[in-house]
Write a structure and sequence with these properties.
The protein is mainly α. The protein folds into two domains: 106 residues, DNA polymerase, domain 1, CATH 1.10.150; 179 residues, Orthogonal Bundle (hpI Integrase, Chain A), CATH 1.10.443. It has 15 helices and three strands. Strands 1-2-3 form a three-stranded antiparallel β-sheet, with no helix packed on it. Strand 2 and strand 3 form a beta hairpin. Helix 2 packs across helix 4 and helix 7 packs across helix 11. The protein is flat, with a radius of gyration of 26 Å.
């Protein structure tokens, strides 16, 4: 057996699981990346995955694999970069265990991520939020559950994984009402609740009985909702809400759009971006700057404050013939 196979096994068991305590999501993402890479390498070299060596996965093959992801599998640049990050992580680990492959490994580690255009985020305006919440049929059990879920999502900005992972014990509705979640990066955080959300959640908890560790928003059978189920319900209500709010017809509404909506509502309320970063559980305050770029109203207010009050209209005229000539260049 080549050096690659035991290195790959040690990378998952020693580095990711034992040393870094990586989440199941991270392990699954890295597993899928390396499974795709080994499949591609087998097609290119004719060697079985267990027979591949570290030297077989050189920079040329890795570069071809990244191009294969974009051109043949139709992956986005973000996905391509995420796959590359997983490969870099494996090769950094391999560099410590196999210095004899240092030259080949360094060339792979030198492959840079590809730059990509960052589109402005999508978020809901206040009328759109009211239309979305109003589209839930609160005469049915599912409608009341979904209304409570959507209201909590818009008010707290929880990620979809955090929403479906909530239990009854995570909600405290006494003085200083809040919801506790175990978020991305294994970080716990507490998010306060507004009076309207408190009332809705109290009614929902009174109707939906269960143990302290049962799902806050269960299925009809008492199980935890899946990510796909939540996204399906959001799409369903967005389509219904578009009948009364036409501006929703041009938007793709997802759980992450609701998270963006929370951030924009806080920004419009004058909350500092560092506080918004803590509210949303961002690792860096810089992540929150995307909301500043998307906020046209904030930019218009800044423009209004910087407009000259007594400026004379007209075009600049150079006072000298030489300057005039330079202006024509």
């Amino acid at each position: 057996m080549s050096a690659l196979a035991p290195t790959l096994q040690a990378f998952f068991t020693e580095r990711l699981i034992r040393q870094r305590h990586a989440s199941d999501h991270t392990i699954s993402a890295y597993r899928d990346t390396l499974r795709l890479l080994l499949g591609y390498a087998t097609q290119r070299t004719g060697l079985a995955p267990s027979a591949l060596d570290i030297a077989d996965l050189d920079a040329t093959l890795i570069g071809g694999f990244l191009d294969h992801l974009e051109t043949e599998r139709g992956n986005s640049v973000r996905t391509r970069n995420a796959r590359l990050a997983a490969i870099h992580s494996l090769f950094r680990f391999a560099a410590l265990a196999h210095p004899e492959h240092a030259a080949s490994i360094s060339r792979v580690l030198a492959i840079p991520p590809k730059r990509f255009d960052r589109a402005l985020i999508t978020y809901l305006t206040e009328p759109e939020v009211h239309a979305l919440l109003g589209s839930c049929d609160q005469t049915s059990w599912i409608g009341r559950r979904d209304h409570a879920l959507l209201l909590l999502a818009v008010q707290t900005g929880l990620r979809i994984s955090e929403l479906i992972g909530l239990t009854r014990a995570d909600v405290y509705l006494g003085a200083g009402a809040h919801v506790t979640c175990h978020g991305k990066g294994r970080k716990d955080r507490i998010t306060p609740l507004t009076s309207g959300t408190i009332t809705t959640l109290r009614n929902w908890l009174n109707e939906h009985q269960g143990g302290p560790y049962s799902p806050l928003f269960p299925t009809r059978h008492g199980l935890k909702l899946s990510r796909d189920a939540v996204e399906h319900r959001i799409t369903h209500y967005a389509q219904r809400a578009a009948d009364s709010c036409p501006s929703l017809r041009g938007k793709t509404i997802t759980a992450h759009v609701l998270r963006h909506t929370t951030a924009m509502r806080l920004l419009h309320a004058g909350i500092d971006t560092s506080v918004i970063a803590l509210w949303l559980g961002h690792v860096s305050v810089e992540t929150t700057h995307i909301y500043l770029h998307a906020d046209l109203e904030l930019k218009e207010k800044a423009l209004a404050k910087t407009q000259p009050t007594n400026a004379q209209p007209g075009r600049y005229q150079p006072p000298d013939s030489l300057l005039t000539w330079l202006e024509t260049l």
